[in-house]
Amino acid sequence: MATPKNIQTPFYLGGLASCTGALFTHPMDLLKVRLQTTKQANASVTSVIKQIYQTQGVSGYYRGLSAALLRQATYSTFRFAVYEIVREKFKRKDGTVSAAGSIFSGVVGGAVGGLFGNPADVANVRMQNDGSLAPELRRNYKNVFDALFRMVREEGPMSLLSGAVPNVSRGVLMTASQVGSYDIFKDALVSYGMSASSPVTHFSSSVLAALIATTVCSPIDVAKTRIMNSKSKEYKNLADALITMTRTEGVSALFKGWTPSFLRLGPHTILVFLFLEQFKAAYIRYKTPDYAKL
Protein backbone atom coordinates (compact mmCIF):
# COMPACT_ATOMS: atom_id res chain seq x y z
CA MET A 1 0.00 0.00 0.00
CA ALA A 2 2.86 2.32 -0.87
CA THR A 3 2.22 6.02 -1.44
CA PRO A 4 4.41 8.85 -2.75
CA LYS A 5 6.95 10.21 -0.30
CA ASN A 6 5.85 12.93 2.11
CA ILE A 7 2.17 12.11 1.60
CA GLN A 8 0.60 10.74 4.78
CA THR A 9 -2.89 9.38 4.16
CA PRO A 10 -5.51 9.74 6.94
CA PHE A 11 -5.44 7.06 9.64
CA TYR A 12 -9.18 6.38 9.31
CA LEU A 13 -9.16 5.18 5.69
CA GLY A 14 -8.68 1.55 6.74
CA GLY A 15 -11.76 1.72 8.95
CA LEU A 16 -13.77 3.49 6.25
CA ALA A 17 -12.83 0.87 3.65
CA SER A 18 -13.69 -1.93 6.09
CA CYS A 19 -17.10 -0.44 6.93
CA THR A 20 -17.85 -0.12 3.22
CA GLY A 21 -16.89 -3.75 2.64
CA ALA A 22 -19.00 -4.90 5.60
CA LEU A 23 -22.14 -3.49 4.00
CA PHE A 24 -21.75 -6.04 1.22
CA THR A 25 -20.49 -9.04 3.20
CA HIS A 26 -22.48 -8.92 6.45
CA PRO A 27 -24.86 -11.79 5.50
CA MET A 28 -21.90 -14.16 5.09
CA ASP A 29 -20.46 -13.06 8.44
CA LEU A 30 -23.81 -13.78 10.10
CA LEU A 31 -23.93 -17.19 8.44
CA LYS A 32 -20.42 -17.94 9.70
CA VAL A 33 -21.40 -17.07 13.29
CA ARG A 34 -24.51 -19.26 13.13
CA LEU A 35 -22.48 -22.23 11.90
CA GLN A 36 -19.75 -21.71 14.49
CA THR A 37 -22.16 -21.53 17.43
CA THR A 38 -24.23 -24.57 16.48
CA LYS A 39 -23.27 -27.90 17.98
CA GLN A 40 -25.22 -29.89 15.39
CA ALA A 41 -22.77 -32.03 13.47
CA ASN A 42 -24.99 -32.09 10.37
CA ALA A 43 -25.50 -28.33 10.10
CA SER A 44 -24.68 -27.04 6.61
CA VAL A 45 -24.51 -23.70 4.85
CA THR A 46 -27.72 -24.34 2.92
CA SER A 47 -29.67 -25.54 5.97
CA VAL A 48 -28.73 -22.43 7.95
CA ILE A 49 -29.59 -20.14 5.02
CA LYS A 50 -33.03 -21.77 4.76
CA GLN A 51 -33.59 -21.62 8.53
CA ILE A 52 -32.81 -17.89 8.66
CA TYR A 53 -35.11 -17.11 5.73
CA GLN A 54 -37.98 -19.24 7.05
CA THR A 55 -37.90 -17.75 10.55
CA GLN A 56 -36.79 -14.14 9.95
CA GLY A 57 -37.11 -13.36 6.26
CA VAL A 58 -34.57 -11.41 4.20
CA SER A 59 -33.97 -8.91 7.02
CA GLY A 60 -32.64 -11.79 9.11
CA TYR A 61 -29.46 -11.82 7.03
CA TYR A 62 -28.68 -8.29 8.26
CA ARG A 63 -29.18 -8.84 11.99
CA GLY A 64 -26.45 -7.07 13.94
CA LEU A 65 -25.38 -4.79 11.07
CA SER A 66 -25.05 -1.78 13.40
CA ALA A 67 -22.70 -3.76 15.63
CA ALA A 68 -20.72 -4.98 12.63
CA LEU A 69 -20.21 -1.41 11.42
CA LEU A 70 -19.14 -0.20 14.87
CA ARG A 71 -16.77 -3.14 15.13
CA GLN A 72 -15.12 -2.26 11.81
CA ALA A 73 -15.01 1.43 12.78
CA THR A 74 -13.04 0.54 15.93
CA TYR A 75 -11.19 -2.71 15.18
CA SER A 76 -10.17 -1.99 11.59
CA THR A 77 -9.42 1.70 12.09
CA PHE A 78 -6.95 0.86 14.85
CA ARG A 79 -5.40 -2.20 13.22
CA PHE A 80 -4.76 -0.51 9.87
CA ALA A 81 -3.52 2.71 11.48
CA VAL A 82 -1.11 0.95 13.85
CA TYR A 83 -0.02 -1.44 11.08
CA GLU A 84 0.99 1.48 8.85
CA ILE A 85 2.77 3.28 11.69
CA VAL A 86 4.84 0.22 12.66
CA ARG A 87 5.49 -0.84 9.06
CA GLU A 88 6.87 2.61 8.30
CA LYS A 89 9.65 1.90 10.81
CA PHE A 90 10.75 -1.13 8.79
CA LYS A 91 11.01 0.64 5.42
CA ARG A 92 14.32 0.33 3.64
CA LYS A 93 15.91 3.14 1.65
CA ASP A 94 14.22 1.89 -1.53
CA GLY A 95 10.81 2.02 0.16
CA THR A 96 10.33 -1.75 0.45
CA VAL A 97 9.61 -3.70 3.64
CA SER A 98 10.72 -7.25 4.42
CA ALA A 99 8.15 -10.03 4.88
CA ALA A 100 9.12 -10.24 8.55
CA GLY A 101 8.56 -6.51 8.93
CA SER A 102 5.09 -6.72 7.39
CA ILE A 103 4.10 -9.69 9.55
CA PHE A 104 5.40 -8.08 12.75
CA SER A 105 3.50 -4.90 11.90
CA GLY A 106 0.38 -7.03 11.50
CA VAL A 107 0.93 -8.63 14.90
CA VAL A 108 1.11 -5.25 16.65
CA GLY A 109 -1.74 -3.71 14.67
CA GLY A 110 -3.96 -6.74 15.19
CA ALA A 111 -3.40 -6.78 18.95
CA VAL A 112 -4.34 -3.12 19.33
CA GLY A 113 -7.31 -3.40 16.98
CA GLY A 114 -8.59 -6.57 18.62
CA LEU A 115 -8.60 -4.94 22.05
CA PHE A 116 -10.33 -1.71 21.00
CA GLY A 117 -12.84 -3.55 18.83
CA ASN A 118 -13.79 -6.16 21.44
CA PRO A 119 -16.94 -4.52 22.93
CA ALA A 120 -18.55 -4.05 19.51
CA ASP A 121 -17.48 -7.56 18.52
CA VAL A 122 -19.24 -9.11 21.53
CA ALA A 123 -22.41 -7.21 20.60
CA ASN A 124 -21.98 -8.24 16.97
CA VAL A 125 -21.71 -11.97 17.76
CA ARG A 126 -24.66 -11.90 20.16
CA MET A 127 -26.94 -9.95 17.83
CA GLN A 128 -26.11 -12.17 14.86
CA ASN A 129 -26.76 -15.36 16.80
CA ASP A 130 -29.86 -14.18 18.68
CA GLY A 131 -32.28 -15.32 16.00
CA SER A 132 -31.08 -18.92 16.25
CA LEU A 133 -31.95 -19.15 19.98
CA ALA A 134 -35.24 -20.21 21.51
CA PRO A 135 -37.51 -17.16 22.13
CA GLU A 136 -37.05 -17.33 25.90
CA LEU A 137 -33.26 -17.30 25.55
CA ARG A 138 -32.98 -14.35 23.16
CA ARG A 139 -31.46 -11.10 24.34
CA ASN A 140 -33.41 -9.00 21.81
CA TYR A 141 -30.98 -6.09 21.67
CA LYS A 142 -32.50 -3.16 19.74
CA ASN A 143 -29.17 -2.01 18.29
CA VAL A 144 -25.47 -2.04 19.09
CA PHE A 145 -25.70 0.78 21.66
CA ASP A 146 -28.60 -0.91 23.44
CA ALA A 147 -26.51 -4.09 23.47
CA LEU A 148 -23.49 -2.35 25.00
CA PHE A 149 -25.53 -0.50 27.66
CA ARG A 150 -27.44 -3.65 28.63
CA MET A 151 -24.28 -5.74 28.85
CA VAL A 152 -22.78 -3.24 31.28
CA ARG A 153 -26.01 -2.94 33.29
CA GLU A 154 -26.91 -6.64 33.40
CA GLU A 155 -23.49 -8.32 33.38
CA GLY A 156 -21.05 -5.65 34.49
CA PRO A 157 -18.38 -3.67 32.59
CA MET A 158 -16.14 -6.72 32.25
CA SER A 159 -18.68 -8.29 29.91
CA LEU A 160 -17.40 -5.88 27.26
CA LEU A 161 -14.10 -7.76 27.41
CA SER A 162 -15.71 -11.19 27.06
CA GLY A 163 -13.54 -13.22 24.73
CA ALA A 164 -10.85 -10.52 24.65
CA VAL A 165 -7.99 -13.04 24.69
CA PRO A 166 -9.20 -15.03 21.66
CA ASN A 167 -10.29 -11.80 19.99
CA VAL A 168 -6.87 -10.20 20.37
CA SER A 169 -5.28 -13.50 19.30
CA ARG A 170 -7.50 -13.55 16.23
CA GLY A 171 -6.72 -9.89 15.54
CA VAL A 172 -3.01 -10.70 15.63
CA LEU A 173 -3.36 -13.70 13.32
CA MET A 174 -5.85 -11.95 11.02
CA THR A 175 -3.87 -8.76 10.52
CA ALA A 176 -0.54 -10.56 10.13
CA SER A 177 -1.96 -13.12 7.69
CA GLN A 178 -4.35 -10.79 5.84
CA VAL A 179 -2.85 -7.29 5.79
CA GLY A 180 0.74 -8.48 6.12
CA SER A 181 0.44 -11.13 3.41
CA TYR A 182 -1.43 -8.68 1.14
CA ASP A 183 1.60 -6.39 1.13
CA ILE A 184 3.95 -9.36 0.71
CA PHE A 185 2.00 -10.70 -2.29
CA LYS A 186 1.59 -7.23 -3.75
CA ASP A 187 5.34 -6.51 -3.50
CA ALA A 188 6.07 -9.89 -5.10
CA LEU A 189 3.69 -9.25 -8.01
CA VAL A 190 5.15 -5.79 -8.55
CA SER A 191 8.66 -7.27 -8.59
CA TYR A 192 7.49 -9.52 -11.46
CA GLY A 193 6.41 -6.51 -13.49
CA MET A 194 2.82 -5.86 -12.46
CA SER A 195 1.75 -2.29 -11.73
CA ALA A 196 1.50 -1.31 -8.07
CA SER A 197 -1.55 0.84 -8.85
CA SER A 198 -3.35 -1.76 -10.98
CA PRO A 199 -6.69 -3.13 -9.67
CA VAL A 200 -5.59 -6.52 -11.06
CA THR A 201 -2.61 -6.48 -8.70
CA HIS A 202 -4.82 -5.46 -5.80
CA PHE A 203 -7.40 -8.15 -6.63
CA SER A 204 -4.84 -10.95 -6.99
CA SER A 205 -3.03 -10.02 -3.78
CA SER A 206 -6.26 -9.81 -1.79
CA VAL A 207 -7.55 -13.22 -2.95
CA LEU A 208 -4.30 -14.92 -1.89
CA ALA A 209 -4.33 -13.02 1.41
CA ALA A 210 -7.93 -14.09 2.08
CA LEU A 211 -7.12 -17.79 1.54
CA ILE A 212 -4.26 -17.66 4.03
CA ALA A 213 -6.14 -15.55 6.58
CA THR A 214 -9.26 -17.75 6.57
CA THR A 215 -7.29 -20.93 7.21
CA VAL A 216 -4.91 -19.47 9.80
CA CYS A 217 -7.66 -17.76 11.80
CA SER A 218 -10.37 -20.43 11.71
CA PRO A 219 -9.60 -22.25 15.03
CA ILE A 220 -9.25 -18.99 16.98
CA ASP A 221 -12.32 -17.55 15.27
CA VAL A 222 -14.52 -20.51 16.22
CA ALA A 223 -13.28 -20.43 19.84
CA LYS A 224 -13.80 -16.66 20.04
CA THR A 225 -17.36 -16.95 18.77
CA ARG A 226 -18.21 -19.77 21.21
CA ILE A 227 -16.79 -17.86 24.21
CA MET A 228 -18.47 -14.56 23.32
CA ASN A 229 -21.85 -16.21 22.74
CA SER A 230 -21.78 -18.34 25.89
CA LYS A 231 -24.21 -17.33 28.66
CA SER A 232 -22.45 -19.52 31.20
CA LYS A 233 -18.75 -20.02 31.79
CA GLU A 234 -18.74 -23.04 29.50
CA TYR A 235 -15.09 -22.52 28.61
CA LYS A 236 -12.41 -21.45 31.09
CA ASN A 237 -10.19 -19.78 28.51
CA LEU A 238 -9.06 -19.94 24.89
CA ALA A 239 -6.98 -23.09 25.34
CA ASP A 240 -9.84 -24.83 27.16
CA ALA A 241 -12.26 -23.92 24.37
CA LEU A 242 -9.94 -25.31 21.69
CA ILE A 243 -9.25 -28.52 23.63
CA THR A 244 -12.92 -29.06 24.58
CA MET A 245 -14.16 -28.57 21.03
CA THR A 246 -11.49 -30.90 19.64
CA ARG A 247 -12.25 -33.59 22.25
CA THR A 248 -16.06 -33.47 22.02
CA GLU A 249 -16.59 -32.54 18.36
CA GLY A 250 -13.38 -33.51 16.61
CA VAL A 251 -10.67 -31.47 14.89
CA SER A 252 -13.13 -30.51 12.17
CA ALA A 253 -14.96 -28.36 14.76
CA LEU A 254 -12.02 -25.93 14.64
CA PHE A 255 -12.83 -25.27 10.99
CA LYS A 256 -16.60 -25.01 11.30
CA GLY A 257 -17.87 -22.24 9.10
CA TRP A 258 -14.69 -22.21 6.94
CA THR A 259 -16.69 -22.00 3.71
CA PRO A 260 -18.87 -19.05 4.76
CA SER A 261 -15.80 -17.55 6.44
CA PHE A 262 -13.96 -17.58 3.12
CA LEU A 263 -17.05 -16.59 1.15
CA ARG A 264 -17.30 -13.65 3.51
CA LEU A 265 -13.59 -12.93 4.05
CA GLY A 266 -12.66 -13.39 0.38
CA PRO A 267 -15.05 -10.74 -0.99
CA HIS A 268 -14.55 -8.63 2.16
CA THR A 269 -10.76 -8.67 1.77
CA ILE A 270 -11.02 -7.89 -1.94
CA LEU A 271 -13.47 -5.05 -1.36
CA VAL A 272 -11.56 -3.60 1.59
CA PHE A 273 -8.24 -3.43 -0.24
CA LEU A 274 -9.80 -2.22 -3.49
CA PHE A 275 -11.64 0.51 -1.59
CA LEU A 276 -8.58 1.30 0.53
CA GLU A 277 -6.27 1.61 -2.47
CA GLN A 278 -8.80 3.84 -4.25
CA PHE A 279 -9.41 5.98 -1.15
CA LYS A 280 -5.66 6.46 -0.76
CA ALA A 281 -5.18 7.24 -4.45
CA ALA A 282 -8.04 9.75 -4.36
CA TYR A 283 -6.56 11.45 -1.30
CA ILE A 284 -3.12 11.61 -2.90
CA ARG A 285 -4.59 13.02 -6.13
CA TYR A 286 -6.35 15.65 -4.04
CA LYS A 287 -3.12 16.59 -2.26
CA THR A 288 -0.83 16.12 -5.28
CA PRO A 289 -2.56 16.78 -8.62
CA ASP A 290 0.52 15.65 -10.55
CA TYR A 291 0.21 12.15 -9.02
CA ALA A 292 -2.80 11.46 -11.24
CA LYS A 293 -0.48 11.66 -14.25
CA LEU A 294 1.89 8.96 -12.94
TrEMBL record:
<feature type="repeat" description="Solcar">
    <location>
        <begin position="197"/>
        <end position="282"/>
    </location>
</feature>
<feature type="repeat" description="Solcar">
    <location>
        <begin position="5"/>
        <end position="89"/>
    </location>
</feature>
<dbReference type="InterPro" id="IPR018108">
    <property type="entry name" value="MCP_transmembrane"/>
</dbReference>
<protein>
    <recommendedName>
        <fullName>Mitochondrial dicarboxylate transporter</fullName>
    </recommendedName>
</protein>
<comment type="similarity">
    <text>Belongs to the mitochondrial carrier (TC 2.A.29) family.</text>
</comment>
<dbReference type="GO" id="GO:0031966">
    <property type="term" value="C:mitochondrial membrane"/>
</dbReference>
<keyword id="KW-0813">Transport</keyword>
<keyword id="KW-0812">Transmembrane</keyword>
<feature type="repeat" description="Solcar">
    <location>
        <begin position="97"/>
        <end position="188"/>
    </location>
</feature>
<keyword id="KW-0472">Membrane</keyword>
<dbReference type="InterPro" id="IPR002067">
    <property type="entry name" value="MCP"/>
</dbReference>
<dbReference type="GO" id="GO:0055085">
    <property type="term" value="P:transmembrane transport"/>
</dbReference>
<keyword id="KW-1133">Transmembrane helix</keyword>
<dbReference type="InterPro" id="IPR023395">
    <property type="entry name" value="MCP_dom_sf"/>
</dbReference>
<keyword id="KW-0496">Mitochondrion</keyword>
<dbReference type="Pfam" id="PF00153">
    <property type="entry name" value="Mito_carr"/>
</dbReference>
<dbReference type="InterPro" id="IPR050391">
    <property type="entry name" value="Mito_Metabolite_Transporter"/>
</dbReference>
<keyword id="KW-0677">Repeat</keyword>
